[in-house]
Amino acid sequence: DSGVTQTPKHLITATGQRVTLRCSPRSGDLSVYWYQQSLDQGLQFLIQYYNGEERAKGNILERFSAQQFPDLHSELNLSSLELGDSALYFCASSVSGMRTDTQYFGPGTRLTVL
Amino acid sequence: AQSVSQHNHHVILSEAASLELGCNYSYGGTVNLFWYVQYPGQHLQLLLKYFSGDPLVKGIKGFEAEFIKSKFSFNLRKPSVQWSDTAEYFCAVMRGGADGLTFGKGTHLIIQP
Question: What is the pLDDT of residue B11?
Answer without folding.
Answer: 97
